[in-house]
Amino acid sequence: MGKTSIVKIMERASGKPVKVGDRVWCNIDWSTARDFGGANCVLQFEKEMGMEAKVWDPDKIAFTFDLQAPAHSEKVAVNQKIIRDFAKRQGIKRVFDINHGIGQHVMLEAGMIKPGDVVLGTDSHMNLLGAVGSFATGVGNSDIAASWINGTNWFRVPETMKIEVTGKFQKGVTMRDLLTKIVGDLGAGGMDFLAVEFTGETIENATLAERITLCSMVTEMSGKVPLIMPNGEVLKWMVERAGPVVAERAKEFAADPDAEYITVLKYDVTNLEPLASCPDAPDNVKPVREIAGTYVDQIHIGSCSNGRFEDIEAAFEVFKAAGCKVNPNVRVIITPSTREVQIQATKAGMVEKFLEAGVVFTNPTCSLCTAEHYGVLPSGDVGCSTTNRNFIGKVGKGSHTYLMSPMSAMATAVKGVITDPRDILG
After folding, report:
1. CATH 3.30.499.10 fits 277-425, yes or no
2. DSSP class of 311
3. pLDDT digits (tens, 9 = 90+) for 135-191
4. What is the Cα–Cα distance from 257 to 325, expressed in whole angstroms?
5. What is the tens place of the pLDDT at every residue in 339-363?
6. Domain map of the chain by residue range?
7. Could you tell me the CATH superfamily of domain 5-267?
8. E strand intervals along 234-322
9. In this structure, are residues 424 and 321 in contact, taking their beta carbons and an 8 Å threshold?
10. Which listed residue, 15, 65, 243, 279, has the most CB atoms within 10 A of its CB?
11. Do the domains 5-267 and 277-425 sit in the same CATH topology, yes or no?
């Protein structure tokens, strides 16, 4: 019987043959912490090991300041300083401070992530790095602190689900709509502790941004890690940043043709329509046309799910088709995922047009993923967002959020009520 990608990755990381269900210690390629939680990791490490203790390898540890950047309170500023000071004492050079953006995206752009890597992080959506074939997973502060001692962590080898995707998206329909469809079909527990391999012609032709979007909400279905091995333009992009080893690893960790899967699902996107996750759960899915006309107070486009240049460009396509105007009764916020994306959007002329229309175009951060950011919703307000969670109170007590694609979100911003983007694009 052949091997799945996750089995191959964990065999490399553990240095021995493994099978589904085994408990194994894996060597870590990257142990990362963000500004939210990172200070606690530092304090715990120094409490347990002493102030003079050294981490196992400063060149395999990274910090990302992406949740509350720049600091919006003295407490946050102090926590960020704790991380900076620790990094200096330990000789940790990979500190992506407040001017960089979302950690996973920044690490990808920096050429740090390769297929087959094992990556720990304090972000529950760390696993979106599976979009380039790495086994990335969100863990608690104690796991991060412990990994700094020996560079290892304990895992159970998960079963694997396979999802094959075929067909081409119609105009106004995007990878986010497919993701929403899958979340609605499987529900919050539909991928419970599973690795998930996405395959098929639609995936093989997908951009990096689309792959990131597809992988970004596996956590919301209780999945362990999504996996897509890089190919085509995505592989070329990665080789340019991380070196030729990427191509070798993409072949090495690809699943065998006769690999065994716990479930195989098939989707054809040809007739897919725009979908939305309605309040107050990601798996409360309905077609946008069924909820069209619902009044909203605020729109947010960004986050680790849909903050890439291609996502902003998709929103701009709808915005441009509507005459570069948004409804004056709606607050509209756009947040690029990284500084690189911010510069791309600026050079493309989109930022100026958005600003002229009254859109708030922010610095790169995780932005409105939680109520810890600027743009929090007051009780009673309704928002539309491209983030990955819409639990009640997530971005403000008493508020409610619809999750949708950048195209649907911008169509809603244009009309002031939930709108199918195809009604604007024609």
Report:
1. yes
2. H
3. 999 999 999 999 999 999 999 999 999 999 999 999 999 999 999 999 999 999 999
4. 50
5. 999 999 999 999 999 999 999 999 9
6. 5-267, 277-425
7. Aconitase, domain 3 (3.30.499.10)
8. 263-268, 275-277, 285-287, 298-301
9. yes
10. 65
11. yes
